[in-house]
Specification:
mainly alpha
Length: 165
């Protein structure tokens, strides 16, 4: 039997006792059964913390990092598009296969982004949020960076004038 739990670190955030409960279940029962338990998380740093010495799952996890698609692999998913459009898609999607697939179904990368931003629960929006959450400790920093990036240079002074750097 194969059991898969996607975004495991997010589930642990909502129920911190889950790690300990899973440890007990694994040590007493699950490890003796023909079970493959796959815990997935898109945030590598959060997944790494779950495997630290002081955590319940320490020594019970075999980490596997599945890399994103590279630009050549993205090109295979976008036959007929120019190199520039392929690279744009790669930059927008980060090479995540599900995002590349959805972008390929759109008429263009721009159309995909515009359609995605309408829905706060869209995969592209959620992926971007997860990346920002992993990079910035607080929401204020993330918002400041996004404000600087999205600012119109004519209206706003520029990135270096808005950024605390």
């Amino acid at each position: 039997m194969i059991v898969v739990q996607d975004e495991f670190p997010r589930v642990v955030e909502t129920d911190p006792s889950l790690e300990g409960e899973l440890q007990v279940a694994w040590d007493t029962t699950l490890s003796k059964l023909p079970i493959l338990l796959i815990l997935i998380g898109s945030d590598v740093a959060m997944m790494s913390r779950l495997m630290e010495h002081d955590r319940p799952l320490f020594g019970r996890v075999t980490p596997t990092v599945v890399p994103a698609l590279n630009p050549a692999e993205v090109a295979q998913a976008l036959p007929g598009r120019s190199a520039m459009k392929i690279f744009d898609t790669y930059l927008v999607t980060g090479g995540y296969p599900r995002l590349v697939e959805r972008c390929a179904a759109a008429r263009s990368t721009s159309a995909y982004v515009k359609a995605s931003l309408i829905d706060p629960f869209n995969d592209l929006v959620i992926s971007a949020q997860l990346v920002l959450d992993a990079e910035f400790n607080d929401a204020a920093s993330a918002r400041q960076v996004l404000t600087a990036i999205g600012a119109d240079a004519v209206i706003r002074p520029g990135f270096h004038d808005v950024s605390p750097i």
